[in-house]
């Protein structure tokens, strides 16, 4: 059973590497004339894809820039879950809607790239872990309340408990490392 988890984990991580290289680009959610999408749904697709892409890329940085086992463990968990969430978002998107890929928030990632060790850990936990997940929870809740596309609303409802769990994990990690929130 453990080998099965390792193989699945390897497949997911490999997918993450293929889906989200560190080269960050911004690409807005788009629609075709045949499939218009309400603004709330467009905003959600953009926010959710950017959040996951940023989480994945920041987690990759954590594997090399952190020396803390708790931070690396959190990052590994984020990489796996956000890769899965990206796939779920793509599957929920209506035909003709492009889900942006490689659209990490460079204003978050840029400052992290030059940091190592404890300085990296503090910035990563605060900016990506706590603040990033707080913003993601708000985006998913907004889609649930205001979204017009049934599949995207369901995807947001299905993913919200995971995002909320990540937010709690980040808060717990911040508390454990003595960071104020």
Automatic annotation (TrEMBL):
Residues 1-24 form the signal peptide. The keyword Protease does not apply. Coiled coil: none annotated. The keyword Signal applies. Residues 40-173 form the DUF4142 domain. Keywords: Signal. InterPro entries: DUF4142, Ferritin-like. It holds the Pfam family DUF4142. PANTHER family: BLR2558 PROTEIN (PTHR38593:SF1). This is DUF4142 domain-containing protein. It comes from Paraburkholderia sabiae.
